Amino acid sequence: MPSYIVTCKEDASPEQVEEVKKHTKEQGGKIGHEYSIIKGFSVTFDDDAVTTLENHPHVKNVEADGVMRTQ
């Protein structure tokens, strides 16, 4: 399964972030790392289920996880 980074909206409360994680699990996602700098987490997901997560009202962004490089 592909891995994604899910970022919640900046104004999302802790309860709303938990709601997004619950929704993620209900859609078959497996949460990996939870980030403290941003309101977000990594998740492995079937491709088809990502669309429902992208449309969640407390989600700002869902992007494919990958290697980040600096110059």
UniProtKB/TrEMBL annotation:
<feature type="domain" description="Inhibitor I9">
    <location>
        <begin position="3"/>
        <end position="70"/>
    </location>
</feature>
<dbReference type="InterPro" id="IPR010259">
    <property type="entry name" value="S8pro/Inhibitor_I9"/>
</dbReference>
<dbReference type="GO" id="GO:0042144">
    <property type="term" value="P:vacuole fusion, non-autophagic"/>
</dbReference>
<comment type="similarity">
    <text>Belongs to the protease inhibitor I9 family.</text>
</comment>
<dbReference type="Pfam" id="PF05922">
    <property type="entry name" value="Inhibitor_I9"/>
</dbReference>
<dbReference type="GO" id="GO:0004866">
    <property type="term" value="F:endopeptidase inhibitor activity"/>
</dbReference>
<protein>
    <submittedName>
        <fullName>Peptidase inhibitor i9 protein</fullName>
    </submittedName>
</protein>
<dbReference type="InterPro" id="IPR037045">
    <property type="entry name" value="S8pro/Inhibitor_I9_sf"/>
</dbReference>
<dbReference type="InterPro" id="IPR052471">
    <property type="entry name" value="PBI_I9"/>
</dbReference>
